[in-house]
Amino acid sequence: MGRNAVFWGTLYNTGKTAFVLSRGAMELIYNKYNSSFACKQSSTYRNNEDYLLGKYLAELGVTAEDSRDERGRERFHVFTPEHLLAPGYNWIFQKYFSRSLNPTIQGKPGFSPTSVSFHGVQQDYIFLYDFLLYHVKVFNYNGGFGNNRSRVYKPSDNVWKAFVRESLGPDYNVSKVSALDYYKLWDLWDPPEEFVRKLREQFLNKTRRS
């Protein structure tokens, strides 16, 4: 299994994305080419080990399977995740991997949730991917922290009622706030102009001290 490519009429799995061989396929190769004399030498394609492996397996009746998922999304990718996700790299896809049997789809629609490998990932990015995959907690996963109500949660209706009783007395009837009491509460807060003025003064004083 791997990313399917075609070269000289042979369907094979490209080594650019890595490939997976079954134990049975490995045994067939070992039994037929079990010595240096049994291995077919080729000066023309000596650097195309993935092509030659696909060619020899096809001669043994083992053909490359379509490794995409049921929606046609790739599992073995010939580019890095950032190249596949970021816009503007279509010219690279067409220029550097013309043997691909299936087109490279840019963006999330081209990614299978069961992806196996990416080509050209730098060493330091391996540590980043490990951190993101195995150490970062996703908030909305199975009702995670982001969806849990705070233990000190108070409905908004209770917040203003608590403020009124704190300001006008614990026994105050919040269902009958008079106009006079409303203005008393309003006086406890600065009007917008006064708030902006105080904020500006605090900023200027902090700037002068620094």
From TrEMBL:
It is found in: Membrane. Keywords: Glycosyltransferase, Membrane, Signal-anchor, Transferase, Transmembrane, Transmembrane helix. GO terms for cellular component: membrane. It is a single-pass type II membrane protein. Its main location: membrane. One of its GO terms (molecular function) is glycoprotein-N-acetylgalactosamine 3-beta-galactosyltransferase activity. PANTHER family: BETA1,3-GALACTOSYLTRANSFERASE (PTHR23033), GLYCOPROTEIN-N-ACETYLGALACTOSAMINE 3-BETA-GALACTOSYLTRANSFERASE 1-RELATED (PTHR23033:SF14). Belongs to the glycosyltransferase 31 family. Beta3-Gal-T subfamily. This is Glycoprotein-N-acetylgalactosamine 3-beta-galactosyltransferase 1.
